[in-house]
Write a structure and sequence with these properties.
CATH architecture of the largest domain: 2-Layer Sandwich
CATH topology of the largest domain: Chloramphenicol Acetyltransferase
Radius of gyration: 26 Å
Helix content: 25-40%
Number of domains: 3
Largest sheet: 7 strands, mixed
Number of helices: 11
């Protein structure tokens, strides 16, 4: 019996998506509700699950194609044997060597291809570049799949080094050769190469929205710096007790989100937006936070953050991060938002001018903490300092309001007691 697989509903106002990758090959065993394909929408990647158990049938749509909601994309042969088919459409041994770089060692130490792992093109490229054995890496993605972060962590730790083997002629063509030896044994430079990769739907949408923001808003950025001494000391003193009680680590974002909510209440224009010839002010703070996902940064929303404790904020951010890596964030998680906080400091950024996320009117950029000399009570002392950047739409927010917002945020971080007594 053949079962059709169609594009599911993708969320409000979303009518189409891009078929990013097939997760199962024709003839491969499929369990009920097991993902068989990944769809990319404007905001998130969504897995399409098999409605029945059986074997993967026809793949009607190629990777990279645009599909509409309700469109037929594949078939499942229910009750089939559930092994890789030996039909002409099944890849040959040579093709599988080029497609799947997961390896295992035989008794002689040679490398043999295995189909135990399904790797995305980006992950496969990293595995080849760094010469690691993907079978030795624990995947943190959905259903245990490897992510780029998993591979890079293994590279840095050296825990998944792959033994060097001499590739066969066929395997050699599937690898990137960085050097070649001439007859004298000297190393020759590799040939110049280029690679063209189609932009994902998510990246296309991000590019379009950011350019629209530059074209529409009157963007301006105001800077300040903040002494992180008090927050660092509070975190060091209470982090173990905090984690024991709340089951989540105490980070810096909880402090900044809480401080931002207080500053937004005092300076409502920073939390507002322009709709036509009207200004919309919000008496709530839905804070968008940028988190890293395998396909890039995504921006889920902490709703009603003004009513949450630091523990509640940290739990929500931790949940967003885990779901972003697993690819399970939904369209609803990304929807809305009145103000954005982007922490480039986790990547080492010293200073930046972030771009607002329309229709929001402001975004706060956080940066790395580093020891710098500052003057306190007439003395030069070394303190852990961070630069803050507030980019805002000057059509709605005046410079005085932007500076006042940053000063209020700075005061709350430098004296966290203000967060407790609402000052």
């Amino acid at each position: 019996m053949t079962t059709e697989v169609k594009v599911p509903a993708l969320g409000e106002s979303i009518t189409e998506a891009t078929l990013g990758k097939w997760l199962k090959a024709p003839g491969e065993a499929v369990a009920a509700d097991e993902p068989i394909a990944s769809l990319e929408t404007d905001k998130v990647a969504i897995d399409v699950a098999s409605p029945v158990a059986g074997a993967m049938g026809l793949q009607i749509v190629p990777e990279g194609a645009t599909v509409l909601v309700g469109a037929l994309i594949a078939t499942i042969e229910a009750g089939a044997a559930g092994t890789r088919a030996s039909s002409p459409s099944a890849p040959s041994d040579v093709e599988r060597r080029d497609q799947n770089v997961s390896t295992s060692l035989d008794t002689n130490g040679a490398s043999e291809p295995t189909d135990s792992l399904t790797l995305s093109p980006a992950v496969r490229r990293l595995v080849l570049e760094h010469g690691v054995d993907p079978t030795k890496i624990k995947g943190s993605g959905k259903d245990g799949r490897l992510t780029k972060e998993d591979v890079m962590a293994a590279v840095e730790s050296g825990s998944a080094a792959s033994p060097r083997v001499i590739p066969s002629d066929v395997e050699g063509h599937a690898q990137t050769v960085s050097t070649a030896l001439d007859t004298n044994g000297t190393s020759l430079p590799a040939a110049r190469q280029e690679e063209r990769v189609k932009m994902t739907r998510l990246r296309q949408t991000v590019a379009k929205r950011l350019k629209e923001a530059q074209n529409t808003a009157a963007l301006l950025t105001t800077f300040n710096d903040v002494d992180m001494t008090a927050v660092i000391e509070a975190r060091a003193k209470y982090k173990d007790l905090f984690e024991k009680k709340h089951g989540v680590r105490l980070g810096f974002m909880g402090f900044f989100v809480k401080a931002a909510c207080m500053a937004l209440r005092d300076i409502p224009a920073v939390n507002g937006s322009i709709e036509g010839d009207e200004i919309v002010y919000h008496n709530y703070a839905d804070i968008s936070v940028a988190v890293s996902a395998p396909n890039g940064l995504v921006v889920p929303v902490i709703r009603d953050a003004q009513d949450m404790s630091v523990a509640g904020i940290e739990k929500t951010i931790g949940d967003f991060g885990a779901r972003a890596k697993a690819g399970t964030l939904t369209m609803e998680d990304m929807k809305g938002g009145t103000f954005t906080i982007s922490n480039g400091g986790v990547f080492g950024s010293l200073m930046s001018t972030p771009i607002i996320n329309p229709p929001q009117s402001a975004v706060l950029g956080l940066h790395r903490i580093e020891d710098r000399p500052v003057v306190r009570d007439g003395q030069v002392v070394v303190r852990p300092m961070m630069y803050l950047a507030l980019s805002y739409d000057h059509r709605l927010i005046d410079g005085r309001e932007a500076v006042t917002f940053l000063v209020a945020l700075k005061n709350a971080i430098e004296d966290p007691t203000r967060l407790l007594i609402d000052l």
